[in-house]
Description:
Elements: E1 2-7, H1 11-20, E2 27-32, H2 40-45, E3 48-51, E4 67-70, H3 76-79, E5 89-91, H4 100-113, H5 116-124, E6 140-144, H6 148-159, E7 163-167, E8 179-181, H7 186-192, E9 195-198, H8 212-217, E10 223-226, H9 235-243, E11 249-252, E12 272-274, H10 285-301
Parallel strand pairs: 1-2, 1-3, 3-4, 4-5, 6-7, 6-9, 7-8, 9-10, 10-11, 11-12
Helix pairs in contact: 1-10, 4-6
Amino acid sequence: MLSVLLWLDEAEIYRQALARAGCADRVEVQTLPAAQQPSAAQLARTEVLLARQVPPGLLANMPRLRWIQALTAGVEHWISRPDLHSGIALSCARGTHRLQMPENILGALFHLTKPYAQATLDQRDRRWVRRVSATLAGKTLGILGLGEIGRELAKKASALELRVIGTRRTPEALPQVDRIYPPEATDEVLAQSDFVLLLLPLTPQTDAIMNAARFRAMRRSAYLLNFGRGALVVDADLVEAVRAKTIAGAVLDVYREEPLPAEHAFWVTEGITVLPHIGGLDLHRDEIVAALFADNMRRYLAGEPPAELVDRVRGY
């Protein structure tokens, strides 16, 4: 039978999903807590691996391994492995943040424009302070990386009368998106946007894409929101841009190092809001990913490629 290794602490949820998909009688499912190491026998017979990450060099000891299902949309930590040879298919969990991420991004937009955070502090001090909120309607949201999350967000943002523009490698029109630009026209998007949202994958082309020059291309009244990858931003350049009022501020949910070190300047820079990587968290996250994995297993058993197969050249 096909040998599957579920190497994570929530393995039972994924085992149940395989059973509901009718795959249980066609696969041998092995489960292993994330903190433990597979035995030599497990490494030797595993053909399909589900894991958050594995130690360096370990894949070289898995001669039968043919497919890895990643638990996240971002897979740069998998692609960069020298032991991930071309004979191993890699699929990601792209699309599993489709609902939660747009809602949290909208929350960030409301945080920037509505006085609820200040009102909470006023309540603590028993102060009656009436504040006027800014309006989202009529503003422009520029999304760098119009993928699944960006498309879903555009639908919701249009209901708030936000104008949505953005960049995308392929130029086809998207519902509720006013205009799509190629990546080479990023500066045009920055110049038009009141809010710049980063949803890009991390690739050699996007690493440090938001640097001092790009912040100067933004409006002085504009805000940066990063819900993509921490390494998209040059940290020191962002801190300087906010302190110098080159841009109005930023809401960050991802960082080059996580947890964010206590001594990092983001914590104490007025105008920067630090979120602890909560954008995609969902009470039912594992059930959602497990459903994707089970469907991919059905495809794999039928000789079909899994959904959300990673293009290693593009990096996502």
